[in-house]
Amino acid sequence: MNKSRVLVVDDEADIRELLSLTLQRMGLDADCAASEFEAMQLMQKHGYDLCLTDMRLPDGDGLRLLEHVSKHYTATPVAVITAYGSAENAVAALKAGAFDYLAKPVSLNQLRALVKSALKLPRVGAGRKAGEPGEEPPGMPVLLGESAMMQTSRGMIEKLARSQTPVHISGESGSGKEVAARLIHLKGPRREALFVPVNCGAIPENLMESEFFGYKKGAFTGADQDRDGFFQAAHGGTLFLDEVADLPIHMQVKLLRAIQEKKVRKVGSTAEENVDVRIISATHRRLTDEVENGTFRQDLFYRLNVIELRMPALREMREDIPLLAAEIVKKLAAPLNITPPNFSSEALNELRSYGFPGNVRELENILERALALTTSEEIKGEDLQLSQAPPKGDSTDLLSSPLPEQLEELEKKAIMQALEKTRYNRTAAARLLGITFRALRYKMGKLGINDALGSDD
After folding, report:
1. How far apart are CA 117 and CA 236, in angstroms?
2. CA 123 – CA 279 distance, rounded (Å)
3. Which candidate in 235, 238, 404, 435 could, as Cys together with 439 as Cys, close a disulfide (CB 3.0–4.6 Å)?
């Protein structure tokens, strides 16, 4: 089996020697170049699995070399080496398509982690293409839709999966931001490590530091043992910071340092530890507005928002609604052991014209309710009960109460009416509702109405 080959480009001889020796000890072949010209000559002669280049070269710069490699050697990822404190250069390189970056003085632990991650990339253009049928890991989530906006989003996800660039995913609630983040993780070199999702708005402010970075035994009352935080749990993988705009300012400062230094310190510890984590963030708010309002640090914004992936709202891709609705009903019907019903033309027209302030998540809830209410093999317009939802159109007004609570109340009301009509005969009630007895029993348990009834018939 041929060894993987790495090209090191740096005008400092001691740096070239250090990196080359480290790579060789990892069992890799390493070639060295002292200039952009030498690097281009070597790339014409050999195929490389990774290029490591300094940002400053005597006859050019790392960005120009990065552009050349990205254009002519698409299967070769490029990582850049930046001077200490040159955060702007690192961000510029990542925006230009760099796989990742290292800051001088180079940490050998970080170098090894970067190299191992780069070598795990799918070899696009070398006999195997990322995303080919049959290559998806089990349980891979799916973003359905053939609209231009969804195809653009999927294309961006494929591209972003081949880098370590921090990504910020914007979009309304329910538009699939976490699904997109998982796909970026699962299609990239970190897919074998953990994807750790964190809802930043759900963590009490006084616990944030210990939750993110861990703590040492005795650090505070109740800390009876050492514990890792989110960063340690995601080591080698991806940390997904959902609703990142909810982080308080003091935590934003600590997060920025952890991202820049790639190190964290547990609460109660005097020592720092290296962490190899890719950061993907998301929020339904506009981060630029939060920066202008002074509630989000500008320097952290630039670190997180190196590349933005926008997830479209469902009303922006109405042509995809019939496909999405059919797939959602198919998924909902499977555990109930029932044949997925079709949609009447009236029902499809209502779905196409509805505004969906809750996006795909709301569509799923509407169809789950419709599946429970329909009494035929076809979902009709009245089964959708969209008249009880917010007005049609593009309105994004907030609901008077959380959508899941409204939907649960509607389900509960429909089940109770069916039970009353059948004198609490559950088998008959299930038949009236058009669902299986098992599905009815499950929903009754979920909605907490079992205790008020007697036996099963």
Report:
1. 8
2. 23
3. 435
Which residue carries 């209410």 as its tokens? 373
d(CA 407, CA 412): 9
Listed range (74-78, 139-143, 368-372, 390-394) with the worst mean pLDDT = 390-394
Among 201, 229, 436, 185, CA closest to 335 = 436
Question: What are the pLDDT digits (tens) for 38-64?
Answer: 999 999 999 999 999 999 999 988 899
Do 168 and 304 meet the contact criterion of CB atoms below 8 Å apart?
yes
Tell me the two tokens of residue 347.
Answer: 């029902």
| Region of 281 on the Ramachandran plot (φ > 0 left; ψ -120 to 50 alpha; else beta) | beta
Q: What is the pTM of this model?
A: 0.77
Distance CA 147, CA 363 (A): 17
Name, in order, each residue with C-beta under 8 angstroms of 14's C-beta and a sequence gap of 6 or more.
none
Query: CA 330 to CA 268: how far, in whole Å?
Result: 51
- Of 74, 188, 209, 201, the closest CA to residue 140 belongs to 188
**CA-CA distance, 121 to 10, in Å (whole number)?**
24
Q: Is 244 exposed, middle or buried (0-12, 13-18, 19+ CB in 10 A)?
A: buried
Specify the DSSP class assigned to residue 401: S
Contact 304, 244 (CB under 8 A): yes
Q: How far is the C-alpha of 394 from the C-alpha of 381, rounded, in Å?
A: 20
User: How many C-alpha atoms does 226 have within 13 Å on its Cβ side?
Assistant: 5
Name which of 182, 204, 178 is nearest 191 in CA terms.
Answer: 182
Q: Is 294 exposed, middle or buried (0-12, 13-18, 19+ CB in 10 A)?
A: exposed
- 3-state secondary structure (DSSP) of residue 263: strand
Give the integer Cα–Cα distance in Å for 228 and 264.
11
Structure confidence at residue 84 as a pLDDT band (50, 70, 90):
low
**Paired sense of beta strands 195-199 and 50-54, if any:** unpaired
- Tell me the pLDDT tens digit for each residue of 115-171: 999 999 876 544 333 333 334 555 688 899 999 999 999 999 999 998 998 999 999
CA atoms within 13 A on the CB side of 140: 19
CA angle 35, 42, 52 (to 5 degrees): 60
Least confident of 87-96, 111-120, 217-226, 344-353: 87-96
Cα torsion for 205, 211, 216, 217, to the nearest 10°?
80
